[in-house]
Design brief:
Length: about 170
């Protein structure tokens, strides 16, 4: 067997190291999905303690996903409607929702990330929302805008794509 020159071995090692980093370091899409999962988990209250401290922790977890000037414009059939501007309004609304719907479940599906730029992105998704009450289930499509700041993605805008309406 002929020994390979050192340059070839070095090249193979560099290629393996780059491949390992590529596999271990999440892509920008995966980082955005992690923010979405953190937001979903903080909004869903199913099976989580309902005491004041736990509620504050979940609301704090949600606000860590948002820009300070976040805009939320939702119109979902079933009464979850309104406009919120700024993280303080979102914090108050999230605390109120968690108390009003202690069994709230949120599932995200059909997540599509587009317009991915170095500091901004857009995502559309379907959120299945179950308030825990009779006839409290709905699915709604949302569009989210993201901004990247100091290497981390934050939700800057949430809007209903098409509101569901009773006919």
């Amino acid at each position: 067997m002929i020994p390979l020159p050192r340059k070839i071995w070095l090249g193979v090692l560099v290629a393996l190291a780059i491949g390992a980093l590529w596999w271990l370091i999440p892509s920008e899409e995966e980082r955005i999905q992690q923010v979405l999962e953190q937001a979903r988990a903080s909004v869903s209250s199913e099976g989580k303690p309902a005491d004041g401290l736990a509620l504050l922790a979940r609301v704090s977890q949600l606000t860590q996903c948002l820009t300070r000037d976040v805009e939320i414009q939702v119109d979902v059939f079933g009464g979850l409607s309104g406009n919120l501007n700024g993280v303080d309004e979102v914090r108050a609304a999230a605390a109120g929702m968690a108390q009003q719907f202690p069994g709230l479940k949120v599932r995200l599906s059909e997540i599509q990330i587009s317009e991915l730029m170095p500091t901004s992105a857009r995502a559309t998704l379907v959120a299945a929302i179950d308030t825990g009450s009779r006839n409290g289930q709905t699915a709604q499509e949302f569009e989210l805008r993201f901004r990247k700041w100091e290497g981390r993605w934050y939700i800057s805008k949430v809007a209903t794509v098409q509101a569901l309406r009773a006919r």
